[in-house]
Amino acid sequence: MLKELYEYGIGNTPVVELPKSNGNRILLKLEMRNFLGSIKARTAYWIVKNLPPEAKNRIIVESSSGNLGYALGHFCKENDLRFICLIDDSITKKKREYLENAEIEYICVEQEEGFDLRNSRIRKAERMMAGGKYYWVNQYDNPFGVMAHEMTTGPEIWKQTDGSITHFVCPIGSGGTIIGIGKYLKRMSEKIKIVGVEPFGSTIYGTVEKTYINAGMGLTGKPGNILHNNNVVDDSYTITDEESISLARMLRNDLGLNVGISSGTAYAGALRIAARETGATILAIAPDGGNAYEEYLK
Q1: Which residues pair with 195 in a beta bridge?
Q2: Are residue 114 and residue 230 in the same domain, yes or no?
Q3: Distance CA 286, CA 298 (A)
Q4: Which of 79, 109, 140 finishes a domain?
Q5: Share of the chain above pLDDT 90, in %
Q6: Would you state the pLDDT for residue 46?
Q7: Distance in Å from the first CA to the final CA of the chain
Q8: Rounded-to-integer distance, Cα 223 and Cα 263, Å
């Protein structure tokens, strides 16, 4: 049985203030301080805690670039459930080591002709689910993944900024984080702008489809979490791998914040907003730490 959320040390992650830009405050919420080292601990806990009865007699499966799979593996094990993570060759060597060290089963899915790696993983999960032996939790269209952030991360951000936040910036992949936080913040103030960032090459909001480095962000087309909540995200930016990596390195080397590539993407989005605003309070999510991305950030 799962313990209560607070007993794991999930949530209440710190917010740090970055140098002002064009007179705007820029804040970064450090989700690497969560239990298991990433924002996905929140998502995984809520998904496993709310699994439907039919899932209890099946093997749980999910397509993941590493962080969610790592967290799902932990909470499934505590609930006496078998879990298999579907990864692909784009995830970093370190993330694969994390799965192996935690004795989390995984299958490395090969790219299907006519599909990118992420969609190849998703198609594999769909086929496994259809066979009846497996239960795909589907982070891309799971209301409990959204609820995790609507009930925890959103309220934390509102409280930590004393309600002064004007813009929220979030990397998008499955869409659960940005939609959950965005729904809460918009209830608190309709003036808050919710801004998504994705790698150049992702087509959630972007228009050019090509390969990109960080498997934890991006998708071909919009996930269900966003399609079912299409009035939450106000604006979006696509950020190149080069800029994301450069800013993640800067955050680590100049400010002592050892964050991952997607945190650099979020910071890039915050700087774009700051370039056209004055007097704003911009908070960006830093989803995880930088240790798993050393091959890019060293």
Answers
A1: 169, 235
A2: no
A3: 18
A4: 140
A5: 90
A6: 98
A7: 40
A8: 21
Query: According to the model, what pLDDT value does residue 214 have?
Result: 82
User: What total number of domains does the chain contain?
Assistant: 2
Phi and psi torsions of 232, nearest 5°: -90, -45
Q: Nearest to residue 166, comparing CAs of 20, 30, 284, 18?
A: 284
Are 131 and 75 in the same domain? yes
Residue 77 is encoded by which pair of tokens? Answer: 């094990």
Give the residue ranges of DSSP H helices in 5-153. 5-8, 40-49, 67-78, 93-101, 117-130, 143-148
Q: Do 100 and 48 reside in the same domain of the chain? A: yes
Domain boundaries, position 124: 41-140
pLDDT of residue 114: 87
Instruction: Single out the residue in 97, 123, 140 at which a domain terminates.
Output: 140
Alpha helices in 106-240 (DSSP H): 117-130, 143-148, 154-160, 176-188, 224-227
Q: pTM to 2 decimals?
A: 0.96
CATH of the domain at 254: 3.40.50.1100
Handedness of CA 109, 211, 251, 146 (dihedral sign): negative
Q: What is the average pLDDT value for the chain, to the nearest integer?
A: 95
Structure tokens at 211: 């390969």
Is 151 exposed, middle or buried, given 0-12, 13-18 or 19+ CB atoms closer than 10 A?
Answer: middle
Please check whether residues 129 and 231 belong to one and the same domain. no
Residue 77 CB coordination number (10 Å):
15
Write the pLDDT tens digit of every residue in 77-87.
999 999 999 99
